[in-house]
Amino acid sequence: MLKIENLHARIAGKDILKGLSLEARPGEVHAIMGPNGAGKSTLGNVIAGRSGYEVTDGTITFDGQNLLDMEPEDRAAAGVFLAFQYPVEIPGVNNTYFLRAALNAQRKARGETELDSMQFLKLVRERVKEMGMTPELLNRAVNEGFSGGEKKRNEVFQMAVLEPRLAILDETDSGLDIDALKQVAEGVNRLRSPERGFLVITHYQRLLDYIVPDFVHVLADGRIVESGDATLAKELEAHGYAWVRDRRPTEAHA
Amino acid sequence: MNAVASPFVESMQAAAAARLPGGGPAWLDDARHQALRAFIERGLPDTRNELWKYTALRALQQRAYAPRDDEAASRVVADELLRLEGCEGPRAVFVNGVFRADLSRLDELAGSIALQPFSDALEHQPEPLRFLLAARADGDDGFTLLNRALAADGLVVRVADGARVPQPLRVVHVGTSAVGAVAWHLRDLIELGEGASLSVIEHHVGDDASGHLANIARTITLRARAQLDWTIVQHASQDTTLLRRTDCVLHEDAKLDFHALELGGKLARHELRVDLAGDRAQFASRGAFVLDGRQHGDTEVLVTHRGRDTVSDSLWRGVAGDRARGVVHGRILVQPGADGSDGSFYNKNLLLSPMAEIDTRPALEIYADEVKANHGATVGQLDDNVLFYLRSRGIPLEVARRMLVRAFCAVTLDGIQPAGLREFCETLLAEQLPEAEA
């Protein structure tokens, strides 16, 4: 589904990713761990198409399509979803209106019929219930005045409505207390399915107690230096990232 | 110093030589001649005038205008142009500056309001207008002087003490094709008696590309406890020059609620002066302008707090794309003795292209004690992070931009009443949003 080969990317003249390769199949959950500055968020942003990043070498294909040639909105329509590390507030844009515009834009781009407001409302109500969202948040402006936990939960809620094929969670655990973390993890687990892949980007092992990954990759200095199963996260927690740095870099083989 | 002889000034002199309605009473002729002389001496406002600092009129100087549209009284106007969905009540219609009884619908207002076209008042009973037309006012500029010299039509509206007009009065200004570019000068006089209330919708529309000039001067008086809601919906044709000056006086406990959506015109300027003369008088304004191409928009909101415990509260949003230029000037002046006044003026602006420009100047002048006064102004661009957020959810770039510009302006439309008018404004705004450049 997702195939990244020898990816090199830089921002503001600074090389961040230096030959990253990774492959993820439908149904798999890949955790990307690593110290600050390793390039974790850059990876998520480059896959989703944020401007400002320059890809100097390598490829990203998604279901055989060259993702790097596509606009962010086209990547979204193809099934890529990025849960932001810092979800933005959009005063004046109603949450429900925004989400309907997003879903219908994606459906239109895929040649599917758009949902009318009744159909959409029905869908949203179901998802709100499943995610344990406060329905009142739907009537507010996107993320405006939301607490940190509400913002992250809203990201997962959007994911539930948009039903992407590849979901990238960029430090979705950061800034959350343990209760909020559990709620967010439950939301994500509910969305796990044989058709959907996940990249879970995190600094801490904590989140992976609740979202148990199939594969764990350690990112250091712009490349994946170690890959393993969920137990690798535990080892990292025990030994720290310095332990990986001392080891010989290997290619990911997931 | 005499004004530089220019095609503009010459065409105005020629207009003054033509007969105007009410040519009769000596005082009126005198007042007009004096105003014309003053205009010729002074000329058009130039950028040394603080209130015209960012609105240069060099191009206008080179234009000559016909003094009137001879067919204005009979021009056919498409009904579609006059429609305002959600607000199909009473209306007064002006076509190329001429009142049109045949297109107006004023019967429903009978009883609660005295309404007379200015042309009619000049013709038949000019005496009550004498105080207004004969007196020289402070703050007259070239356009108000021209208006004094040349105003041929407009509206005289009086609402009796205690009368509450149930339906909004819509005043429609239509610019439509004539032989050439026409200049018209309209004078409105609006007076609400004690405890009276009225809603007015000032609606500008156009269907042509003949480059008319509309010069409107307006005097509004709100007696004690009177309440006026005023909403501007301006989508005049893109080559119209629209100059408006509104002078409002609010007596004790009077209230003026003002909304504006300014979209059309090549040059559209409104100088709104609000004198909070009586204790506890209140003024609120919410407005947005959206400019594209080479449009120039200028909003001047000049508030004077004179009574005690008076309140003014203004919130404006400006958007400029392409090579458009916007100007916002919000001034709050608190006079000695206006203790307990509370004034605020906030303005945020959005530039959608590198060549667009908006100049905003909030200003406070305070000469009283225990006053609350706040102001703020910003000029910015669409936030790339927010755009990326929307696109990452599948919303195409252009749709995302429009969504954000609409949201930016929406806060100024929220309070528009009735709901049908607000929805119309929202739709109009959505239709006229300029394209942003990366």
Shape field of chain B: globular
Main-sheet strand order of chain B equals: 2-1-5-7-9-11-13-15-17-19
- How far the N terminus sits from the C terminus of chain A, by CA atoms, comes to 12 Å
Strand order of the largest sheet of chain A: 6-9-10-3-11-12
Pairing-aware structural class of the strands and helices of chain A?
A: alpha/beta
**Global mean pLDDT of chain B:** 93
Q: Helix and strand string of chain A, N-terminal first?
A: EEEHEEHEEHHEHEHEEEHH
Distance between the termini of chain B: 48 Å
Largest interface: A-B, 31 and 23 residues
Helix coverage percent of chain A:
25-40%
Strand content of chain A: 25-35%
Low-confidence spans of chain A? none
Alpha plus pi helix count of chain A? 8
Total strands of chain B: 19
What does this entry look like structurally?
The complex is a heterodimer of chains A (254) and B (438). By secondary structure, chain A is an alpha/beta fold. Chain A contains 8 helices and 12 strands. In chain A, the strands form 3 sheets. Chain A has a 6-stranded mixed beta sheet, with helices on both faces. Chain A has a 4-stranded antiparallel beta sheet with strand order 2-1-4-5. A two-stranded antiparallel sheet of chain A has the order 7-8. In chain A, a hairpin with a 2-residue loop joins strand 11 and strand 12. Chain A is globular. In chain B, helix 2 runs antiparallel to helix 7, helix 8 crosses helix 9 and helix 9 packs antiparallel against helix 10. A 10-stranded mixed beta sheet of chain B has the order 2-1-5-7-9-11-13-15-17-19, with helices on one face. In chain B, strands 3-4-6-8-10-12-14-16-18 form a 9-stranded mixed beta sheet. The mean pLDDT of chain B is 93. Chain B is globular, with a radius of gyration of 21 Å. Chains A and B meet through helix 2, strand 7 and helix 3 of A and helix 8 and helix 9 of B.
